[in-house]
Request: fold
Amino acid sequence: MLCRSAIKPVFIGLGAAAVLAAGGASAIAAEAASPELTITVDAQKQSEPGKPISVTATVATSEDTASAVHISEVKLTSGTTGVDPKVIQGCDFEKTLCDFGEVNTTNETATSVVDVSGKFDAPVTVTVTMTVTGNFGEEPSEATSEPVALTFNPVKADPPTETPTDPPTTTPPPTSKPTKKPTKKPTSRTPSKPSPTPTKSAAASGSGGGGSSSSGSGSSSSGSGGGYVPPSPNSSFDPRNPQVALPPIQAPNPSVAPSPVPGSGTPQSRLQGNKAPVAQDVTFERMASTQIAWLAALLVAFSLLLTQLRLGRRRVPAGAAAKRPKGTHRRPRRGMFGK
Reply:
């Protein structure tokens, strides 16, 4: 067994160790409980060709409330030369800062728009980093977001559209030669020659019979012969050739005549049912209307002349008018009640 003098130091050592352990734990807890700001950046990873990208920053506190909270820096970096990334709207620390005022554990958001100026043919990557600053009482606090990569795609020019060109149309040369119209030579008709000896007829035989009766016995020999001998012409008689030279006749042309074009032959008239009058008909109508107007004017003038002549007759002297019985100038009434 241990003695009491040895046990007392052990208890004292254990108590001191417990006190030291409790103090260290409270110090660690006090350090972990200090409030701080947090910031998160969210954005679309790639943009459409030629368009900017919107970036959203979310700010909050771990605990307690911070005052004068604002975006103090927006850092844009790009590894491509010849391009200039910049904030065109939102939290631009050079122009306007995103001032949140007082921020607690509730998330506060602010949206910025990032664009790239310059000409580029390949996609451009831009890294965005934001820093937020605020105060917890009198102690300042600051937080920086994780870098976010943005990819900007270039605008591709549309290839020029080729207009289809049709090959020139070539007309083949005519292969068929024009056919010649067949022509026939005129044929002259030659009449047949008349027979030199006339044919026998009943009149000739009768005349021969009559001659036999007058000659008596000699007629029997002549009648039995039966042949008629024509009289020979005189020496002064010159017989003409009965052949007559006919004029040459042109052979018929087998080609078909072209069909007449309507309206190209005889001029149209009203009798043919045409809708538009011919120029001759229009001229005739104008002349007729002019003559009718002149005749009407002459008739009116003649009527006015007769009226003037009738009104301009010499009036009867007053003495002659007094000699006439009263009322003779009036037309007497006729009928049942007439005088």
